[in-house]
Amino acid sequence: MELRKDYFADVRKDGLNEIGQPRPRLDSPGHVTGKTAYFADRNFPGMLHLKMVRSPHHHARIRSIDTSEAEKHPGVVRVLTARDVPHNVYTILILIQVGPEDETVLADGKVRWKGEAVVAVLAETERAAQEAAAKVKVDYEVLPAVFDMEEALKPGAPVVNEYHGQNYYLYDSGECRKVRFGDVEAGFAQADHILEQSYQSSPIEHAPTETTGCVVAPEGNDRFTCYTNTQAMFFTLDNASIILQMPGSKLHFVGGTVGGGFGGKVDVIVEPIAILGAKLTGRPVSFVYSREEEMQISSPRAAEKIVIKDGVMKDGRIVARKVTGYTDAGAYSRHSPYGAQKGAAHYPGPYTISNVWIDTYCVYTNRTPSSAMRGFGVTIGDFALEVQMDKLARLIGMDPLEFRFINAYRDGDMKAHRQPTEGAALIECMQEASRAANWPVAEKYMAMSSYRKGA
Amino acid sequence: MAIRRGRGVAAINYPTGMNLGGDPTQALVHSTPTGNFMVTLSSVDLGQGMKQIMAQICAETIGVPTDRVVVDTADTDTGPHCMGTFASRGTHRAGNAVIQAAKEARQVMLEVAAEELEVNASDLDTDGQGNIQVKGAPQKSISIFDVALSAHFKRGRSISGRGMFLIPRSYPEKETGAMKPSTCYAHACTVAEVEVDDETGEVTVLTVKNVFEIGRALNPKMVEQQLVGGSWMGISHALYETTEPYYPNRDHGGTDFNQYLMPGPGDLAETEIIVLERPSADGPFGAKGPGEMCANPQIPAVANAVFDAVGVRIDTLPITPERILRALKAQAAG
Questions:
Q1: Is B292 a catalytic residue?
Q2: Same domain membership, residue A439 and residue A318
Q3: Fewer Cβ close by (within 10 Å): the C or N end of chain A?
């Protein structure tokens, strides 16, 4: 790595004692010698193991659940169903008033994706819990499912989630989050060329070294300590408090070093049901996802479909940009309404365009609920935007890097979401990339600056 | 049939934090009797080194070496509230809270030292080595060890401070989308060089040159570990990863690392990292959050390089050999 101190030296105070110093990490020796403690290193006498019975169907009505054989299985201590959960229908962003509550801790009457939790089994050993889970009998009536976002948005499509009533998240702005800036149609009318292209991604996995999980221990005084690898301690505690209808003072959450998060550990999935198990049995409970659960049950990054329509002039200026983004939330909201909204704020990218129209939709389908992941709302948008930029440059016969200089945002430029640009540095990054990659651009671009004054 | 070479570029920005949901984090700082400092948080260290960076921020603010600071975090019985470690917010939000708490503690520390030295607190400064001295007269000094002992056993003072950082929630305007989604933006430009085998569709990423502007590299070695890791993740996202290879079809999802493809050490490109620092107005020592941003620009840069190499656009992620071969076949057909 190279620190290029010559850029922005006039606005930076160097020469500090501790900041800017490459101090060795104090936790590294523990990590590399295996001494760092993770939640799963906690082991309590009499600890039970929780395993989930999961839906084999993408969409089905539950006619009946028979747990009698599972309860008789040797080593089984308790079997939990929806009626054991005090506040079974929840949504995590209710903490910041983003509703409605749309998801069940344990399925109640319906399953909406293949893998959805239906029954929780608590047993003396993991093996006993697994074997007993296989003995739970659930009678399903399979319903038509919808997997494709465009199909889901068509009239007459199966309704994925009745708590929403339609297969998209209803924002206060309507069926999508909107950004309107300038007059996009007038921009297209004046453009020399128009290019409309569609981009698509599929879900991906966070792939942390340590899978999602927690260990809960009753403290003997009606309080419960939850050792967890959540990325957000109070966010998880407060949601558990709602789901369990327990005062927050009865809950004590302890984290520590987490073996990788990447956004995959902010869903509040394992903690509430494990605490409930500990409360109802009076015993410590461990609930840890298998690698298979981490990959197919735990929320992935949402698949997205993004349509970009641009109007561009022969001289390289983009004069209009219209983006329609679709985020595949799967069956439940989790963090996806927020991600789609973050996308609306991110477009049209780090470029100054005077006519912009953005619609971002959060769409429900019968698949594993997606949620937060490193860069969500932005990562796939950047893929689409930057491939589109490459296509536009080639369309007008311009060097792709020079084309970006022409449109790059600079201090003071008004963004589409009506915030003035501050602290821009895109131009300097491109100048340095031009040098480092030996990708020469015209001198006038190398002389540009993100600063406005004196420009 | 040939191995074809191409290169592609991408330039991006990335917001720090999550103003669209409200964004609070608090911190507490106190000294021990012998002049070490405890930072108490409930933020989570995901392995990226949050504890280390909070220790350095506290040490710089109080004016002591980093090894005099211990960070106690992720316990809801002791740590004050933190929204969580996500949205590239940890260093920026918690760092600001730690600075505020450390400033308050530093002020008490200087007041106690002033009483011991019989001078005004405003005439004192730290030497960064564990001592407090009179400005312009460094021979007149007292160790922070002795100041802490005095505070605890003689003066009855608590060398401690409270810190809070809150970005108020921004509500998007319904019709126009006017909103303040973030406080500062990190930037990047990446150039990727690839080879594409037009017989097998296989892509080899040869080099990835990343320029990142991150506000301030608080600890350059830790910045490097995060940016290099992010760059590798970007390649993985571009070419390998999917839990549903034939999305929207639900079948064929990987359930372990044999089925879920990621690059191995031999698949990773020669990676170059160049860092620029334009301090942000509201970041701790100007830092921005590059945690998410650093895995993004490689994806379009690789996609554009594939086009440059073989002349087909793969607009669906991941860019698999199968998709490249199908596109080449379609291109040949005409």
A1: yes
A2: yes
A3: C
Residue A354 shares a structural domain with residue A241: no
- Residues B126-173: tens digit of each pLDDT: 999 999 999 999 999 999 999 999 999 999 999 999 999 998 899 999
Per-residue pLDDT at A455: 42
Averaged pLDDT score across all residues of chain A:
97
Contact assessment for residue B315 and residue A197, using Cβ atoms and an 8 Å cutoff: yes
Predicted confidence (pLDDT) at residue A453 exceeds the cutoff of 70: no
Q: C-alpha A218: how far from its chain's center? A: 31
Decide if B3-16+182-333 and B19-166 have a common fold.
yes
Does A424 contact B187 at a Cβ distance shorter than 8 Å? Answer: yes
CB contact (8 A) between residue B292 and residue A292: no
Residue A195 sits in the same domain as residue A221:
no
B296-B301-B306-B308 Cα dihedral, nearest 10 degrees:
160
Q: Are A160 and A365 in contact (CB under 8 A)?
A: yes
pLDDT, tens digit, 9 for 90 and up, residues A161-176: 999 999 999 999 999 9
Residues A288, A412, single domain; the answer is no
CATH classification of the domain holding A273: 3.90.1170.50
- Cβ A171 vs Cβ A221: under 8 Å: no
Which residues touch A330 (CB under 8 Å, ≥6 apart)?
A: A113, A299, A302, A336, A364, A365, A366, A367, A368, A369, A370
For the domain with range B3-16+182-333, which CATH number is right: 3.90.180.10, 1.10.287.180, 3.30.365.10, 3.10.129.10? 3.30.365.10
User: Does the residue A128 lie in any domain?
Assistant: yes
Nearest by CB: B84 against A31, A204, A266: A266
Taking residue A397's Cβ as centre, other Cβ atoms within 10 Å add up to 9
Buried b (16+ CB within 10 A) or exposed e, A298-315: bbbbbbbbbbbbbbbeee
Instruction: Tell me the per-residue pLDDT of A109-122, one tens digit each, with 9 for 90 and over.
Output: 999 999 999 999 99
Domain housing A315: 177-204+300-446
Residues with Cβ < 8 Å from A41, sequence gap 6 or more? none
Low-confidence stretches of chain B (pLDDT beneath 70): none
Q: Do residues A281 and A308 share a domain?
A: no
DSSP, residue by residue, A398-443: --HHHHHHHHB--TTPBPTTS-B--S--HHHHHHHHHHHTT----H
CA nearest A253 in B: which residue? B76
Alpha-helical (H) ranges within A227-316 are 233-244, 271-281, 291-296
Q: Do residues A322 and A407 both lie within one domain? A: yes
The CA distance from A206 to A151, in Å, is: 27
| Number of structural domains in chain A | 2
What Cα–Cα distance (Å) separates residue A418 from each residue in A101, A175, A421, B177? 31, 22, 9, 8
Looking at 3.30.56.10, 3.50.50.60, 3.30.365.10, 3.30.830.10, the CATH number of the domain B19-166 comes to 3.30.365.10
DSSP state of B265: G
**What are the φ/ψ torsions at residue B134 (nearest 5 degrees)?**
-75, 130
User: Residue A80: in which H helix or E strand, if any?
Assistant: strand A76-80
Mean pLDDT, to the nearest integer, of A280-308? 98
* CB < 8 Å from A in window 253-282 of B: 253-257, 260, 262, 272-281
Helix (H) or strand (E) holding B25: strand B23-31
Q: Which of A8, A148, A390 sits opposite B277 (nearest CB)?
A: A8
